[in-house]
Write a structure and sequence with these properties.
The complex is a heterodimer of chains A (260) and B (381). By secondary structure, chain A is mainly β. Helix content of chain A is 15%, strand content 46%. Chain A has 2 domains: 2-117, Proliferating Cell Nuclear Antigen; 135-251, Box (Proliferating Cell Nuclear Antigen), CATH 3.70.10. In chain A, strand 13 and strand 14 form a beta hairpin. The chains are: A mainly beta (260), B alpha/beta (381). Chain B: Pfam families: XPG_I, XPG_N.
């Protein structure tokens, strides 16, 4: 049987908010080490990978590995029924057709449980090689969200270029051009507001705003976001989930067309 | 046309081989379009009050309208189409063509009758059955595509076979046709409904050849034999053998030769002078231009040329044509969105292998409880 109890139920609510625009359904793979999810969006341009480690839960039991296919829209509906300070428990039998979500109020006076049908999903898993990225940029998550939102007004894609001086986001379109430059923070008073860049070589890549905007739905999860880039490989956008795991988004870059 | 009942049979027996997708998810894909098929579609479907669109002189323009707008729709969605036109039909098809001729005659008679009776619905229906793609239609379209900057290929023989050749060589990703025999020719990915009107909101249906073979549990040769048994354009089939029977016969006996030997003579008899082995050869080694000799280039649209051809000669409205040319030009700008499958490899679909890998990466066990490892594949590492 499978049972996972999370006192900070809020985290799970936020994780779902960060997924449901990109994916309509996905499999949660449960093992004794924790819960994982990996899925691509329909167009195979982006991929989400979620990890929730077992040690982050207050109680975690998984006797057999199991894969629970869920409709994320339905799951999100259920999780919206939980209050922000509720304790959430997820339960399923080994060969279950259903999963149960239990929401307890902190004072234990209210207990709600919701049952949802599981789906049989046949999803492709991708092997993501370990990569040393040429540039790793850390910046406040809210700042990143704002930048993408602002630049989306100018064009369909945003160019991210990282040099020694800092990182530049630009977009061009019918109404004109927009550029936002961020320099590394000189003195770090508050770690959460710092911009840090670790760079081996300068990188410039182009990405679709539409996807970046969907990624920034995870802004509520963490104060900082990490962008990892290397020439001609997908971008990684990572948000930590408390100290129990992460949501990672991978996005294929836009490439120049060779046979036009 | 095509293979009788094949799509239904795939849906029943190998549902995993069919996927539905939206047109916008095909950005960056090169697709070979079976031009004759789409021309028929346009001549039948692109109509105004039941009649084909024509110029002032009564020259049909439905096919141009269809080719122009539906091509733009594909290009706007990032698809790179290449049209493949039919050459001369193989001699084996003469029997089928004769039958189609008879059907036309029937339709013609029915049309006359409907006209006499004044039944408008029936007149529409029968006149649609009478549609025939002629040489001039094909020439018109080639001319139009040239101005649009869209490449086309003139096949020496069957267009579906040429499309399959382009897919097999990797020149294009898929074939867009309604005709299922493209699959018999070995097309890896077949797309249906690609050239349908946007207004119909029809999702695109993908058929995957490899998954079809896997689901049917057949080799390529056996699949061709199955298609012949289902009924193809090149020869007759065994009377009374339906799809369910056909698939069972091929699975049991592996080839038409063996099937004939084991056939229940009382119930079924193979057609006289059955040319199945010739039909088989046509599917296996069709007359095509090798893909290596074909160079596909998507050029800039020639706006002035388009206006001259479409407006001056064919009587289309100039602003619409110019608008279309702008759309074609705009779609060429900018870069193409990449796909993750181009960067990351798809793992074999054994879910246990995936979870196992994770296990080895992390040794921490949160529950502190000794958990049972599942038996079977779980011990692979």
């Amino acid at each position: 049987m499978f049972e996972a109890r999370l006192v900070q139920g809020n985290l799970l609510k936020k994780v779902l908010e960060s997924l449901k625009d990109l994916l309509t359904e996905a499999s949660w793979d449960c093992a004794d080490t924790g819960i994982q999810l990996q899925a691509m969006d329909n167009s195979h341009v982006s991929l989400v990978s979620v990890q929730l480690r077992a040690d982050g839960f207050d109680k975690f039991r998984c006797d057999r590995q199991l894969s629970m296919g869920m409709n994320l829209t339905s799951m999100s509906k259920i999780l919206r029924c939980a209050a922000n300070d509720d304790i959430i428990t997820i339960k399923a039998q080994d060969q279950a057709d259903n999963v149960t979500f239990v929401f307890e109020s902190p004072n234990q006076e209210k207990v709600a449980d919701y049952e949802m049908k599981l789906m049989n999903l046949d999803q492709e898993h991708l092997g993501i090689p370990e990569t040393d990225y040429a540039a790793v940029i850390k910046l406040p998550a809210a700042e990143f969200q704002r930048i993408i939102k602002d630049l989306s007004q100018f064009g369909e894609s945003v160019v991210i270029s990282c040099t020694k001086e800092g990182v530049k986001f630009s977009a061009a379109g019918d109404i004109g051009v927009g550029n936002i430059k961020l320099a590394q923070t000189a003195s770090v008073d508050k770690e959460e507001e710092a911009v840090t860049i670790e760079m081996q070589e300068p990188v410039t890549l182009t990405f679709a705003c539409r996807y970046l905007n969907m990624f920034t739905k995870a802004t509520c999860l963490a104060p900082q976001v990490t962008l990892s880039m290397s020439p001609e490989v997908p971008l990684v956008v990572e948000y930590k989930i408390g100290d129990m795991g992460h949501v990672r988004y991978y996005l294929a870059p836009k490439i120049e067309d060779e046979d036009n | 046309m095509g293979i009788q009942g094949l799509s239904k049979l795939i849906a029943d027996v190998a549902p995993a081989a069919i996927k539905e997708n939206e047109i916008k998810n095909y950005f960056g894909r090169k697709v070979a379009i079976d031009a004759s098929m789409s021309l028929y579609q346009f001549l039948i479907a692109v109509r105004s009050e039941g009649a084909q669109l024509t110029t002032a002189d009564g020259e049909t323009t439905s096919h141009l309208m269809g080719t122009f707008y539906r091509t733009i729709r594909m290009v706007e969605n990032g698809i790179k189409p290449v049209y493949v036109f039919d050459g001369k039909p193989p001699t084996m098809k003469s029997g089928e063509l004769e039958k189609r001729g008879e059907k036309r005659a029937e339709a013609e008679a029915a049309l006359e009758k409907a006209k006499e009776l004044g039944n408008q619905d029936e007149v529409d229906k029968q006149s649609r059955r009478l549609v025939k793609v002629g040489k001039s239609h094909v020439e018109d379209c080639k001319e139009l595509l040239k101005f649009m900057g869209i490449p086309f290929v003139s096949a020496p023989c069957e267009a579906e076979a040429q499309c399959a050749e382009l897919v097999k060589s990797g020149k294009v990703y898929a074939v867009g046709t309604e005709d299922m025999d493209a699959l018999t020719f070995g097309t890896k990915v077949l797309l249906r409904h690609l050239t349908f009107s946007e207004a119909r909101k029809m999702p695109i249906k993908e058929f995957y050849y490899d998954q079809v073979l896997e689901g049917f549990n057949m080799t390529q040769d056996q699949f061709i034999d199955l298609c012949i048994l289902l009924g193809c354009d090149y020869c007759d089939k065994i009377k009374g053998v339906g799809p369910k029977n056909a698939i069972k016969l091929v699975q049991d006996h592996k080839s038409i030769e063996e099937i004939i030997k084991h056939l229940d003579g009382k119930k079924f008899s193979p057609p006289e002078n059955w040319l199945f082995s010739e039909a088989r050869r046509l599917f296996k080694e069709p007359e095509v231009t090798p893909a290596s000799e074909i160079d596909l280039k998507w050029e800039k649209p020639d706006e002035e040329g388009l206006v001259k051809y479409m407006c001056e000669q064919k009587g289309f409205a100039e602003d619409r044509i110019r608008n279309g040319a702008k759309k074609l030009l705009k779609a060429r700008q900018g870069s193409t969105q990449g796909r993750l499958d181009g960067f990351f490899k798809v793992l074999p679909s054994t879910p246990k292998a995936g979870t196992n890998k994770r296990k080895s990466e992390e040794t921490k066990v949160g529950s502190g409880k000794k958990t049972k490892t599942p038996t079977g594949k779980g011990f692979r590492r």
